């Protein structure tokens, strides 16, 4: 939401913590395959392509073509340093791997949200929605 509204991007901590982002279509397909299988133990469904939060914020700024700044705030105490799924079981048991790259998924997602009316962007996320639509 911040990027679409032209606001500076918030990064908690120094941004060195990592995350892995999976495009929703891939996530749904993986979950569907698991539900349709006879396998009853946990299976990680996600994209193991890992990136730091700071790098991700920089990718967003590049994608949006803006001059937004990155604002650093205190890292929550319980924030994990790393999140990267091991999808070995998904590959071997379900024959599933994500197909959409992070860059492609981010672009598709950005284009979708950019196409929405401004009031929808504020309505769904922003605590001060009312003051922006008057």
CATH superfamily (homologous) name? UDP-galactose 4-epimerase, domain 1
Kindly state the number of beta strands. 4
Mean pLDDT: 90
Q: Strand fraction band? A: 5-15%
Outline the biggest β-sheet. Answer: 2 strands, parallel
What's the CATH architecture? Alpha-Beta Complex
| Number of H/I helices | 6
Unreliable parts: none
Structural domains: how many: 1
**First-last Cα distance:** 19 Å
Counting helices, strands and paired strands, the structural category is mainly alpha
Q: Order the strands across the largest sheet as they lie in space.
A: 1-4
Rg, nearest Å: 17 Å
Question: Which fold name is given in CATH as the topology?
Answer: UDP-galactose 4-epimerase, domain 1
**SSE order, one letter for each helix or strand:** EEHEHEHHHH
Helix content: 40-55%
Name of the level-1 CATH class: Alpha Beta
Shape: globular
Describe the structure.
It contains 6 helices and 4 strands, in the order ββαβαβαααα. The protein is mainly α and 134 residues long. Helix 2 packs across helix 4. The two termini are 19 Å apart.
Secondary-structure blueprint of this entry?
Layout: E1 9-12, E2 18-20, H1 24-36, E3 50-52, H2 53-64, E4 70-73, H3 88-94, H4 102-114, H5 118-125, H6 129-132
Parallel strand pairs: 1-4
Antiparallel strand pairs: 2-3
Helix pairs in contact: 2-4
Task: Write a compact overview of the structure shown.
It contains 6 helices and 4 strands, in the order ββαβαβαααα. With 134 residues, the chain is mainly alpha-helical.
